[in-house]
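Render this sequence as a predicted structure.
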Amino acid sequence: MTEVLGWRLDDTVALIRGASDSTVMLDILPEDAGPDGKHKLVPLIRKKISLDQQAAKESIIDVKEGNSTRHIGVISLPTFYQDFGARQNGDKEFKSATRDVSRLLAKLKKDKVDSVLIDLRNNGGGSLDEAVELTGLFIDKGPVVQQRNSQGKVKVESDTNGSPAWDGPLGVLINRGSASASEIFAAAIQDYGRGLVIGEASFGKGTVQGIVNLDQVVHNDKPKFGELKMTVAQFFRINGGTTQLRGVTPDINFPASTDAETFGESSFDNALPWVQIKAADYTPEGDLTDLLPMLQTRHDARIKNDKDFQYLQEDIAEFNLQRKKNLISLNEAERRKERDAEEARIKSREKSGDTAKGATEKQAGNKERAKARNALRDDGLQANERNLTVELAAEKAQKDAKDVLLDEAVHILSDEVDLLKTDTRLAARVLPGSILTTIPK
């Protein structure tokens, strides 16, 4: 055994790595065992790790409206991934975001979903090729994004497939954490009029960086100066506007849970400005103009009666108020008073939910939300000072709590399906090539 206490993480990882199918033995002292606790030996077979948790996942959410039920397929995509090595080596089964989403779309079509929502919240980007190819699953063919380099030369990245995997109603859910490739995809879907963009304004990452090896520049034989990351190009939408700084503006806005002054491209002191170039040569595939006011009206009416959504707005307003105060009392009595007031506010919500119809289900949901809130509560501890078991349980509670924004996004897409199925002329403008245009009133 090799003692690795105090080692750098990358040095420890290098020791654990080795030839495929060989065995590495880890000698572990459990966190709660104490200095005299019993050691545990864990043998691991070295294999290629598949990051399935970062892969696209699908689900179906049913929305009941009156006598009808709409089935909305949701595809959650945490990153635009691709196994570059396998692709370069000619592996025909290389893993990629587009391939996985295409497979999931085929499954959702078999399940006869009425609409599809691509959830890109907190997707920080990834492969540009994947952003282009993924867009191709929803459009016929054409340009997807433009790049302008430091010399002013513009290059257009296009989808040439011409065989969309899904031509029905489509939505893209974004937030401030949606950046780079996510913004390219959402912007292209919006510019083509192909689907609704829902959520809050995205990150605003519209630049391309490259790594310059300074030792190679001066022809050093030994490493001395390191590397420099430089901005070498900028992304532009096919309509000519850049995604830089402003990001992508949703067609239907949700309350912003982050502060643009502290998170996003606009929070950087030297962020490049928003600029515009000539639009690419493309033809929109739909027109949502007449549809948006009706969807907005339904959305506004629904959230007025949705307590969970109202609570979310209240929490965001309270968070913004506290942030703008920019101070916190160090008096224990004052802090306890503030905490008690917050807990009383939460309990009053739970009581109001209990008096409504379906109290048992509401109580269960309230408990999950309470656990999630406790997970986010400031306990004054550093990350390495918290109990791992408690932290994992809190993280699970967060995941299990109701996703208010996803729920409302799904309802918006259900509204769209309802409007398109009851008005074929509207459907013909919104989705000219979709099967919905042929459904009789």
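Summary. Residues 84 and 90 are 10 Å apart (CA to CA). The two ends are 74 Å apart (CA to CA).
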